[in-house]
Write a structure and sequence with these properties.
Belongs to the transferase hexapeptide repeat family. LpxD subfamily. It catalyses: a UDP-3-O-[(3R)-3-hydroxyacyl]-alpha-D-glucosamine + a (3R)-hydroxyacyl-[ACP] = a UDP-2-N,3-O-bis[(3R)-3-hydroxyacyl]-alpha-D-glucosamine + holo-[ACP] + H(+). The chain is α/β, with parallel strands linked by helices. It has a domain of 85 residues: Udp-n-acetylmuramoylalanyl-d-glutamate--2,6- Diaminopimelate Ligase, Chain: A, domain 1, CATH 3.40.1390. It has 4 helices and 35 strands. Strand 17 and strand 18 form a beta hairpin. The longest helix has 14 residues. The termini are far apart.
Length: 315
């Protein structure tokens, strides 16, 4: 779509006819993409954006770099939500190439494989699985019954995906109007899963808003784990049952999270960190190879001492 058409869609006057191919973050946008600034803590990212245009408030319009078109509005995030619908792919592709299935791959009855999808060699896809359009699955991967893989997602070699898991469902993203109505932010990214990954039953991994939710090589996810949009799980990490990660959480390599532990969004956890069961991470952890517990979070040894003191109060 042209920038003029997009601006007119949200009621902004703009005569620029530049073609816009998609939406992206401030720093990741290129000269054919549209971005936005809502939170002032990202003002330095605005100054360095390479986007074609940016949704921005009157307050921050003077920070828009030369050559970037400013689409001035009161609620950039809300307008981004409205525009995201314009770039959402088809739910189901009617036209396209028939799926390519590798040698020695077993596809059981009642499996759907979408257009333009590719499944590698020596895979097993069990009954009831749904493999959407433009999905790529590597070699030697096992998909158990009733797994759903939404469109555009990728799964590597030697993976095991257990029954009932959903890969690529929409991230939980909404913008509010002034009267409280929720406007859906269409999740136009995907999920990328590396090699040698095992995912337990009934786990949900949400697709990204713009780019990819990433599960790196060697990760192990237990049953009933939730990975929100735009998260990145570093290689070799282990997430035990009922762990939940809020959006844009980054786990570096070999992080271990115990059962029912969770993170707030937009934070990063250092390599080789251990979070004990029911630990709540609300701030980034920068020092590697430490163990943490509790909510609010304490170093594990301190948390144990605190529990002992509380126990003594009851005597």
């Amino acid at each position: 779509m042209t920038l003029k058409e997009i601006a007119n869609f949200i009621g902004i006057d703009c005569q620029n006819e530049k073609e816009i191919t998609g939406l992206n973050t401030l720093l990741d946008s290129n000269e054919n993409q549209l971005t936005f600034l809502e939170n002032k803590k990202y003002i330095n990212d605005l100054k360095n954006t390479k986007a074609a245009a940016v949704l921005v408030t009157h307050e921050n319009v003077n920070e828009v770099p030369d050559g970037v078109v400013a689409l001035v509005c009161d609620q950039p995030y809300l307008n981004l939500a409205k525009i995201s619908k314009l770039f959402a792919p088809n739910v189901v592709e009617i036209y396209g190439a028939e799926p390519l299935i590798g040698s020695e791959t077993t596809i059981m009855p009642n499996v759907y494989v979408g257009k333009n999808s590719v499944i590698g060699n020596n895979c097993t896809i069990m009954a009831g699985a749904f493999i959407g359009d433009n999905v790529k699955i590597g070699n030697n991967t096992i998909i158990y019954p009733n797994v759903t893989v939404y469109r555009d997602c990728t799964i590597g070699n030697d993976c095991i995906i257990h029954a009932g898991t959903v890969i690529g469902s929409d991230g939980f993203g909404f913008a509010n109007t002034k009267d409280g109505k929720y406007i859906k932010i269409y999740q136009n990214g995907n999920v990328t899963i590396g090699n040698d990954v095992e995912i337990g039953a009934n786990t949900a991994i949400d697709r990204a808003v713009f780019k990819s939710t990433i599960i790196e090589d060697g990760v192990r996810l237990d049953n009933l784990v939730h990975i929100a949009h735009n998260c990145k799980i570093g290689r070799g990490s282990i997430l035990v049952g009922q762990v939940g990660l809020a959006g844009s959480t980054i786990l570096n390599a070999y992080v271990v999270m115990g059962g029912q532990s969770a993170t707030a969004g937009h934070l990063e956890i250092a390599p080789f960190t251990t979070i004990a069961a029911r630990g709540g991470v609300t701030k980034s952890i920068t020092e590697p190879k430490k163990s943490w517990a509790g909510f609010p979070l304490f170093e594990h040894k301190q948390w144990l001492k605190l529990q002992a003191k509380i126990s003594n109060l009851l005597k």
